[in-house]
Every structure is written in structure tokens, then in C-alpha cells.
Amino acid sequence: PGGSETLEPLVQLKGEHLNVAKISESGKKQRKNWTLMWSILTSDQLLLYKERQQETSQKPGSKTDVVQLCGAFIEWTTEKSSRKNVFQITTNTGSEYLLQTDSYSTASKWYDAIRKTIDSSTKA
Ligand code: I3P
Questions:
Q1: 83 C-beta closer than 6 A to ligand 1
Q2: How many C-alpha atoms does 55 have within 13 Å on its Cβ side?
Q3: Which residue's alpha carbon is at the smallest distance from atom 16 of ligand 1?
């Protein structure tokens, strides 16, 4: 051990564009503003970038937001948006995110992977 390589977070789902709306920050309601975000799921975080990240890139762009999944809660919602395939992530610090994509298979792939990540990082 002790190499000079940086410790990369374990990627569970590679980058993909998802529509994201942060509707609450630390329990404080935010104005809904859907933004297309480049999303990457690691073993305990959902990383959200404004710009698409190149897999070969040496210098990843700055993370626009990091959703901590330990202790978070996820559920499908039909009430919080007129859009289809919307699910909500509530963090243990009271931030709420809506995630959406028109493809049901893509949305459910992310939902299932995030739910598993919440389960495993919360138990850890
Ligand atoms: C919001 C915008 C959102 C919409 C939201 C509107 O208006 O149209 O796309 O959410 O509906 O309030 P504005 O841009 O003026 O803030 P959905 O697309 O998820 O339906 P809502 O108020 O019913 O949440």
C-alpha cells in the first residue's frame, strides 16, 4: 500500500444525463428548476456535474453537487411533477432531489442502483 495514485470512488453506474431538480436544501424549500446533469453513481454518493465528464479525462470537472446516500431515502413520485418517471431522493440532512428521464428503463436502472447503494452505504 501507499502508492501515489489517488483513490478513485468506486463507480457503480457510469455517467449519463438525467434531469435533476433540487427542491429542498437542508429542509428549506427551493424553487423547482430542472437541469440536465451528468450523473455518476459511486459506492456512497451521487455526483452531479453540469458538463459531461470524459472517462479518460485526467482532470475531472468540478462537481456541481454531491448527494450523500448514506441514510438517504428514495421513492417514486407522481405528485411532485407533471413529468413521467420521476423519483425523489431525500438525504439525511433534509435535501430533496427529483430525478427524471423520459426512458422508463433508464429511470428504473438508476432508481434500483441508487436504492441498492443507499441500502449498502447505510448498513456500512
Ligand atoms: C415550474 C416549471 C417546472 C414545473 C413546475 C413549475 O415553473 O414549469 O418544469 O415542474 O411545476 O412551477 P417555473 O419555471 O416558472 O418555476 P414539472 O416540470 O416537474 O411539472 P410545479 O410547480 O407543479 O412543481
A1: yes
A2: 5
A3: 32
Ligand 1 binding pocket includes 79 (Cβ within 6 Å): no
Q: Encode burial over 80-116: b for 16+ CB neighbours within 10 A, e otherwise.
A: ebeeebbbbbbbeeebbbbbbbeeeeebeebbeebbe
Instruction: Outline where DSSP puts E strands in the chain.
Output: 11-25, 28-29, 35-42, 45-49, 65-68, 73-76, 86-90, 96-100
Q: Look up the ipTM and state it.
A: 0.89
How does pLDDT run across 70-94, given as a tens digit for each residue?
A: 999 999 999 999 999 999 999 999 9
